[in-house]
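Work Package 4 report. The design task specified in the project plan requires that, given a folded chain encoded as structure tokens, an amino acid be chosen for each position. We show below one input record used in the internal validation round.
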């Protein structure tokens, strides 16, 4: 099958894990670590990165196969041999995509390139010239203006979108309507990890409800040492992120908690953790006879590889939608792959919706 042509906005740790993974599964005939081996006939190796966009001087102008290993990226290297792709990273448009404090951290922060920034016209032209089918938004948390810039470009260029970060596009009716009108699929917003803090918190919340345990209070505290956590030191950039993560948990509770009884969100930046993310989770509830109980859990994951399997499935769902002529938010895939979809469903229901969507149309109709 012809490869799915993908553009990546932001060549950071998440992009590094995704690009490494495509080559890994291309070289290894394995389904280990995949949520779906194939979707619509497309395997995990059936992706071609035809456009890559960044603003860091250490990445702009380099082949994407080289740029994914450039500082400040610090994620695990599990596929060292990534052949040159012929796709060089082009300069994007900064806008609010770089927090002011991120340029004060030397090699660990951003070093904004002095190359001429992209315009809407040049970015649309690049998307069209590359033949991009699906655009992946890996911009930092808080990049409202920058995300909207690239969404406008995607709409004008006629490409599908996987919105991996918490600027609400698929879940905002005015944006979703525009994608639907152009028959362009979008999966969003704010990707869930394969086995991360949010999905675990959601499953435990559902379990408490199913077993008749009333949740009184809960928190989810996260620390990490990558640029994502450094970026989130600016608490003013966290509004949509906290909303996304909190609502993902609230939607699974039998009874909604008052704001003072739930805390979900990033907590601190610990440089030596690099791309390792630690989640500390606590849930307090009442059993039979109103007898109290509590659960505490510590989860340690490599943050960026933890998102790659989910993004890979979202890419392939978008390609299936393009092949079928579907547009707008993909409801099942968005609910299963993202924290803040247009419609929340429990994860078992959302998983079944994905299975039904990716099935052959004739089978889905039976």
């Amino acid at each position: 099958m012809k490869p799915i042509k993908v553009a990546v906005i932001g060549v950071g740790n998440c992009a590094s894990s995704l690009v490494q993974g495509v080559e890994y599964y291309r070289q290894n005939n394995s389904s280990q670590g995949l949520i779906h081996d194939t979707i619509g006939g497309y395997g995990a190796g059936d992706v071609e990165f035809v456009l890559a966009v960044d603003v860091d001087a250490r990445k702009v102008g380099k082949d994407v196969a080289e740029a994914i290993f450039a500082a400040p990226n610090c994620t695990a290297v599990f596929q060292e041999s990534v052949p040159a792709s012929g796709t060089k990273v082009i300069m994007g448009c900064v806008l609010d995509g770089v927090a002011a404090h991120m340029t004060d951290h030397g090699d660990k922060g951003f070093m904004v390139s002095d190359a001429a920034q992209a315009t809407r016209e040049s970015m649309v032209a690049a998307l069209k010239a590359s033949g991009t089918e699906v655009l992946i938004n890996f911009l930092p948390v808080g990049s409202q203006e920058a995300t909207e810039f690239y969404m406008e470009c995607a709409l004008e260029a006629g490409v599908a979108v996987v919105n991996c970060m918490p600027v609400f596009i698929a879940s905002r009716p005015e944006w979703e309507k525009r994608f639907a009108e152009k028959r362009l699929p979008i999966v969003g917003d704010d990707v869930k990890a394969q086995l991360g803090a949010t999905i675990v918190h959601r499953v435990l919340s559902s379990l408490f409800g199913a077993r008749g345990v009333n949740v009184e209070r809960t928190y989810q505290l996260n620390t990490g040492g990558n640029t994502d956590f450094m970026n989130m030191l600016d608490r003013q950039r966290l509004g949509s992120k906290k909303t996304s993560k909190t609502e993902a948990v609230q939607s699974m509770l039998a009874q909604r908690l008052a704001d003072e009884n739930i805390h979900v969100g990033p907590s601190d930046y610990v440089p030596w953790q690099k791309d390792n993310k630690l989640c500390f989770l606590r849930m307090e509830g009442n059993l039979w006879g109103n007898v109290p109980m509590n659960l505490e859990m510590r989860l340690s994951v490599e943050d960026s590889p933890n998102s790659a399997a989910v993004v890979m499935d979202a890419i392939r769902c978008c390609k299936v939608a393009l092949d079928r002529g579907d547009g707008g938010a993909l409801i099942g895939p968005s609910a299963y792959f993202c924290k803040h979809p247009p419609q929340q469903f429990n994860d078992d229901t959302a998983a079944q919706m994905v299975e039904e969507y990716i099935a052959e149309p004739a089978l889905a109709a039976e």
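The longest helix spans residues 305-324. Validation will be extended to a larger panel in the next phase.
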